Hints:
Layout: H1 11-31, E1 32-34, H2 41-68, H3 88-103, H4 107-136, H5 138-146, H6 167-195, E2 202-204
Parallel strand pairs: 1-2
Helix pairs in contact: 1-4, 2-3, 2-6, 3-4, 3-6, 4-5
Amino acid sequence: MTKPAARPVNQKARIGVLRAVFVLLLPILVFTRPVWDLESPLVETMEQVGIYCVIFAVLGRFWSILYSGGAKNRRVVREGPYSMARHPLYFFSTLGVAGLGLMSGSVLLALALTATVGGILAITARLEEEYLRRSFGAAYEEYAAEVPMILPNLRLFRTPERIEVTLRPLYGNFFDALVFLAFIPVSETLEWLKDDSVYPTVAIW
């Protein structure tokens, strides 16, 4: 049996790994293009869906932090998005990454990004839960038995009339949101450059 973690997962290490993944994938984003025409209905639809996913992910992350308020390691948060999934921040982050992949117009790249980042966050969630189970015992075991880990169950939603909001975690999330949103104009710029064949690219599905 795996020994429970003595303290919370090092979130700086998780963020560092995710940043490294994006650095490695950046050349792929820049130097590849979809096999379909960039002006085709399929690519345009994928791009629009991707933009909606990114916006929904940003809003979902803010919504989740409003409820957790930095208290995720101090008590069992079960309200709002946490009533539907134990790690809604990771769900919305994965959704945002899927949106970035779709905006590229490549199905292969969208799947690769989603699987890579989703896998890293799923592993992180399991490591976090070792600490949470150690800290909260039966209360967290009951929560885990009723609520899915990452994929939300909408039927479980519940929320109190009032919640206490801590502003500091929201400031940190603001910069994460900028990273996601900044990719929208970046993607449009890359599409323009690729469409005009400004530099050589490799076509992928």
